[in-house]
Fold this sequence. Notes:
With 212 residues, the protein is an alpha/beta fold. It has helices spanning 43-51, 65-68, 77-92, 105-117, 140-144, 193-210, and strands at 5-11, 14-21, 28-33, 57-63, 98-103, 121-125, 150-155, 172-176. An eight-stranded mixed beta sheet has the order 1-2-4-3-5-6-7-8, with helices on both faces. Helix 1 (43-51) crosses helix 6 and helix 3 crosses helix 4. It is globular, with a radius of gyration of 16 Å. It starts with a strand and ends with a helix.
Amino acid sequence: MTQETSEIIGTDAGDARVTWHPAKQPRLVLAVSHGAGGGIEARDLQALARVLPGHGVSVALVEQPWRVAGKKLAPAPKTLDLGWRGVWPALARPGLPVISGGRSAGARVACRTAVELGAHAVLALGFPLHPPGRPEKSRAGELLGSGVPTLVVQGGNDPFGKPAEFLDGPFELVEVPHGDHGFAVPKRAEITQDEAVTVITDAVVKWAGSLG
Length: 212
């Protein structure tokens, strides 16, 4: 496997950081960013960076400027979009189709900007369909409006939207049984934490392989 590298990218929202996990013979780039409360150390992002390069997909883990600056709280959605736009030229630099992805708030960014940036597809990990306990404040419009092939990977017990709450639409949805918003599963669940993570990586490998 080719060596992991990291670079700082200046954007209009501040400096972002991209950590590359390159495939030896890549045919796609999967660019994924973190949510509003965590970073690229999230278990699902790390698992994708570990597994996908072996399947011809280079993985770029993107840290939004607010994380690079050491801030605790994410800025407004339009500022997140600004940061993502600023990073995009670096993600497209290898000349390969780019899957725009993210977890939680990062998934919303990917959906909102996919058509504008020319994304090949969108990977939405733990899409926050609504704030916990507030199903009336739906963000389904962002997901339905992505405009490109979209895969949603959702925990079965995600308080931001359980799989059954998603309306039918032009996207695929894979459930991580018993998973919460961070895909953590209870100790007593019939699947282990490692198995839950494998559900995610297997789904993304299969889906990425199906993209033309």
